[in-house]
Amino acid sequence: MTQATSSQADILVVGTGIAGLAAALALARQGLRVGLLGPRAPLPAPEADSFDPRVYALSPASRDLLADLGIWDALPAERITGVRRMEILGDRPVWGDRPGRLGLSAWQAGCDHLAWIAESRELERVLRQAVQWSGIRWTTEDFVGLEAGRAADGVTLRTSGGQALRARLAVAADGADSKLREAAGLSAQRSAYGATGVVVHLGAELPHQECACQWFTPNGVLALLPMPDTRDGPQVSMVWSMPAAQAAALLALPEPDRARALETRLAAATGGRLGALRVRSPLFGFPLVLQHCPQLAHRGVVLLGDAAHVVHPLAGQGLNLGLGDVKALAQVLGGREPFRTVDDPRLLRRYERARAEPLLAMRAVTDGLFHLFGAQAAPVAWLRNAGLDLVDRMPLLKRMLVNGASGTGTRA
Ligand SMILES: Cc1cc2nc3c(=O)[nH]c(=O)nc-3n(C[C@H](O)[C@H](O)[C@H](O)COP(=O)(O)OP(=O)(O)OC[C@H]3O[C@@H](n4cnc5c(N)ncnc54)[C@H](O)[C@@H]3O)c2cc1C
Questions:
Q1: Could you tell me where the beta strands, DSSP code E, fall in 16-96?
Q2: Is the CB of 308 under 6 A from ligand 1?
């Protein structure tokens, strides 16, 4: 039996991951009464030399949003690494025995950094503190269903603890398997890549020099992201999007065979670019999918973050897209005409229009690259490697790519 709460929020954000926490804060900053619904699992205290396996490459646009929310300066600077260069290496020789290569650097874009690598749990920690200070009411239960029949003045959400929470607008930030999205009747088209993102932190023999490296190998896309040095020396974080069967076989190996097998593969894939690489944390695997929602809002429910879209992690842009949603929704709702309520379908259409182009572009780029580099036919393989080399010699195109990669969006 559910009981109705007396107070009604303008907006109830469902989902307490990074996108949900940032959305709650950004919307509260617009003067809206915001509630938050979702679990608050304890976060382990930060420890020197111990890092969250989940790290994100945050774009300058995401950094700016976090700075506007007062979050950026609260992050522990010693646990964040700036990325000044990116190197993208192909999988086949173009001329002689050298594979295609494309180098991008921050100075080409006239900025300090292309991205920053930050741990998921440190971002969550400071976002949670800010939510607490903002006086946002956080109900630490799960969303379980929408009350049938939408009232004229909003929606009613049922929680796992038997409460009924009312709001003008519900924001679904409850991840790729969003229950709120499903309850609102918003469809999601999902296709599996047949690949798994294997993540682990590695000790490196050579310094990373703030460079993020990515290899398009015949066994998937390998990315090594610069991380803070440890007592044992330089460190990088690995995301290897490998075929699902290969990842399953690797993850099924007992330790220490698993670490040795990965280190051997890394040596072959990187050609010793960072010297010997040693596994220094447990391995995790995430199944990779492409997910797209044709409609982002319907009858008092709006989607953002992974609830709205999931892209291949090869460009490291999933969370950046989610934070882009947060910014757009806050701008649209904060800038509404005084006579419109936050659930006005015209406002929600504005949000959908604002996100249509960035979401389509990111889907096209990540999916296109995945298929281009997945093709094994020799002429395609030669062409894509030659393409990397060619782009490397075109300064204007490179500047556009750098601006795209850093999310600054400016044109050459
Ligand atoms: C291997 C890998 C590497 C990646 N690297 C990058 C990167 O470098 N840069 C980048 O930008 N992105 C990256 N991504 C993508 C990024 O991980 C996601 O886009 C991001 O975590 C999504 O955040 P979110 O808050 O939308 O969703 P989630 O993180 O999934 O959060 C959803 C929240 O909703 C809560 N929830 C779920 N169900 C309910 C319910 N019924 N009621 C209430 N709450 C609920 C959950 O507890 C959780 O807190 C990567 C992804 C993978 C797989």
A1: 34-37, 55-58, 81-83, 85-95
A2: no
Over range 367-382, report the average pLDDT: 63
* Model pLDDT for residues 7-59, shown as the tens digit of each residue: 578 999 999 999 999 999 999 999 999 999 999 999 999 999 999 999 999 99
CA dist 95 and 257 (Å) reads 37
pLDDT at 8 (0 to 100) = 74
23 touches 329 (CB < 8 A): yes
Q: Is the CB of 145 under 6 A from ligand 1?
A: no
> CATH fold of 9-42+122-188+293-376, please?
FAD/NAD(P)-binding domain (3.50.50)
**Is the confidence at residue 316, as pLDDT, over 60?**
yes
Does the 55-119+193-288 domain belong in CATH 3.40.50.150?
no
By C-alpha distance, which of 389, 410, 385, 390 is closest to 399?
A: 410
Ligand 1: residue of 174, 180, 365, 370 to mutate (most ligand atoms within 8 A of CB) is 174
